[in-house]
Specification:
The complex is a heterodimer of chains A (271) and B (334). By secondary structure, chain A is of the alpha/beta class. In chain A, 37% of the residues lie in helices and 25% in strands. In chain A, the strands form two sheets. Chain A has a six-stranded mixed sheet with strand order 6-7-8-3-9-10, with helices on both faces. A four-stranded antiparallel sheet of chain A has the order 2-1-4-5. Chain B has a domain of 231 residues: 3-Layer(aba) Sandwich (Rossmann fold), CATH 3.40.50.300. The chains are: A alpha/beta (271), B alpha/beta (334).
Chain lengths: 271, 334
């Protein structure tokens, strides 16, 4: 049984279709990588799932999460119930996504306390627990800290923790490491992989970087201009890309150029 | 007379910390020295906050230099007067990271490219010729010249920025993260373009990037910055194939294309984010090899091979240097 199933998902702004007839499914504890360049519609797909589309956007098709039809049951543009509980999302810029006037304790615990009605004191234990799950060794020291005092990697961990606290089954990560340094990126990715394996969290991992998709494994879906041009097991898509667009995208990565011993980054004949 | 076109010696830069009233300064660069030969591409690599952009800003005269000098051709920064700065800017040009922010949206693309020539008093007939020439070189469609930056894609905008920089026929181009705002396929074409321009026009390049995997496609030599210090310098092949500094090793190991499968070998514990101490090794607190000596005095940059230098006691012990020469000494043997 699929955890999330999108059928003929379409997001349009007037006549312009940002996402055009996209279908996919994500199973429990599995990864779907959504790869594409800017303007391919990958973020709009994620936002449609979360009910976070900008004003003026119209959706078509159907999305079901744990058999619940999201588009029919909830008013989409106000954010649906599953948003933040069954399904959570982290963004590219952790600094921009965290309220600078709230402490880490409030940021991580806010949704949890709203849902459970627990006191600050009672919620603290759970807050520390999720912070620890993101690799923070002494979470107590972080509780009174403000986001602007955090490094990029720490801010992204806090972001992940604030999503984990409600035990979501699906985490949507929209370019979660693009703003981070490579060594920090490696740490954040390993946290996501560990959560997937240990907490059986399904991941929708959005990236423009194919080499990251290869690390995340699972299935990969390549988008261009709102359309899915290729999809399949990540290894197959990266090693034997069938679509010319995917082939070019794979060939452009420095890692691939190095492996092929090429002197130039652009594949032959496209420069 | 050395063949070096750029010679940076003991460059130190500090900034006043934001939001502090005290004379509390952040040491962005500490005694950075390197040189770039004619028609060479030198890449400075480092993570955010390592000081790589500060090097560019210091060389361009955009920030105050506390200590040290940078000689570029016949100019020595700091210490230029207004007239010399003008001449300097004919010879040294820059391309910034974000092509969306560095072009005036109200000017046409043609005017944007022509503007430096107007400022430097080039006659109208020659201007037209040089604009046409540079537009061809950066492979920009001539039809685009009448349009505004808003009508261009990210890659086209960065080509306009490169054209603007090259229209003065500079000898040194400083490129500060020129592709990190661009898509992968566009990134590839811009990198290849810069490599080609370097070959065709004899340009010298200072290429600043956070992406070690990327710079090998353009750099002849690579310098790695950490905590405002240059910790390793060598030919591109040496740094990529045989990195000596533990930080360079960890940086290479973290490159997604080089991580084999799971990322599990990456530390999941939090690295202590203490400010690099002024005396010890800047990488000290994050380094697994660190000991008392590292904390007590920062290792100097010494030669491991004639072309490869590293600032790490452990790496030096592991790979005994052929010649121990302090960084301030001659680097090309005279």
């Amino acid at each position: 049984m699929a955890l999330l199933r999108a059928r003929n998902l379409t997001v349009s702004f007037g006549p312009f279709k940002a996402v055009d007839d996209v279908s996919f499914r994500i199973k429990h504890g599995e990864t779907l990588c959504l790869v594409g360049e800017s303007g391919s519609g990958k973020s709009m797909t994620a936002r449609a799932l979360m009910g976070l589309l900008p004003p003026g956007a119209a959706v078509g098709g159907a999305v079901s999460f744990e058999e619940l039809d999201l588009f029919r049951n909830r008013a989409l543009y106000t954010g649906h119930q599953e948003c933040g509980r069954g399904m959570a999302m982290i963004f590219q810029e952790p600094m921009a996504a965290l309220n600078p006037s709230m402490t880490v304790e409030t940021l991580v615990g806010e949704a949890y306390r709203l849902r459970t009605g627990l006191s600050r004191q009672a919620a603290r234990e759970r807050i520390c627990e999720v912070l620890q799950q993101t690799g923070i060794l002494s979470p107590e020291d972080l509780l009174r800290v403000y986001p602007w005092q955090l490094s990029g990697g720490l801010a992204q961990r806090v972001m992940i923790a604030s999503n984990l606290i409600l035990k979501p089954r699906l985490l949507i990560a929209d370019e979660p490491t693009t703003a981070l340094d490579v060594t920090t990126q490696a740490q954040i990715l390993s946290i996501l992989l560990r959560l997937r394996d240990q907490a059986s969290l399904a991941l929708l991992f959005i990236t423009h970087d194919l080499s990251l998709a290869s690390l995340m494994g699972g299935e990969t879906m390549v988008m261009k201009n709102g359309i899915v041009v290729e999809s399949g097991p990540t290894i197959r898509v990266l090693e034997e890309p069938a679509h010319p667009y995917t082939r070019n995208l794979v060939a452009c990565t420095p890692a691939r150029a190095r492996r092929e011993g090429r002197k130039r980054l652009s594949p032959e004949g496209t420069s | 007379m050395s063949r070096d076109y750029v010679k940076v010696r003991g460059l130190s830069v500090s900034y006043l910390r934001a939001g502090t009233l005290r004379k509390d300064r952040f040491q962005a660069l500490t005694k950075v020295s390197f040189e770039i030969e004619h028609n060479e591409c030198f890449a400075l690599v480092g993570e955010s906050g390592s000081g790589k952009s500060t090097v560019a800003r210091a060389l361009l005269g955009l920030t105050r230099i506390d200590e040290g000098t940078a000689r570029i051709g016949s100019f020595t920064v700091p210490g230029l007067d207004a007239r010399q700065w003008r001449e300097f800017r004919r010879e040294v040009q820059v391309v910034f990271q974000d092509p969306y922010l560095s072009l005036n949206p109200r000017l046409s693309v043609g005017t944007l490219i022509e503007e430096p020539l107007i400022i430097h008093g080039v006659a109208r007939a020659e201007r037209r010729e040089r604009v046409a020439d540079v537009v061809r070189r950066v492979r920009l469609e001539p039809e685009l010249l009448a349009g505004r930056p808003a009508q261009l894609s990210g890659g086209q905008r960065q080509r306009v920025c490169i054209a603007r920089a090259l229209v003065l026929r500079p000898r040194l181009l400083i490129a500060d993260e020129p592709v990190s705002a661009l898509d992968l396929s566009v990134q590839a074409s811009i990198i290849d373009l810069l490599a080609e321009l370097k070959e065709e026009t004899g340009l010298t390049l200072l290429f600043i990037s956070h992406d070690l995997e990327l710079v090998q496609f353009i750099a002849d030599r690579i310098g790695v910055l950490y905590g405002g210090r240059l910790i390793e310098v060598g030919s591109a092949a040496e740094v990529m194939e045989d990195p000596l500094h533990p930080y360079t090793k960890s940086l290479l190991a973290a490159v997604p294309g080089r991580l084999t499968s799971a990322v599990s070998q990456a530390p999941s514990a939090l690295p202590p984010r203490s400010a690099p101490s002024n005396t010890g090794c800047p990488y000290g607190t994050n380094c697994s090899l660190t000991d008392m000596k590292c904390q007590y005095s920062g290792p100097p940059l010494v030669m491991a091979t004639p072309t490869h230098r590293v600032a790490c006691y452990k790496a030096q012990a592991e790979k005994p240097p052929t010649t121990i020469a302090p960084v301030e000494g001659p680097l090309h043997g005279g």
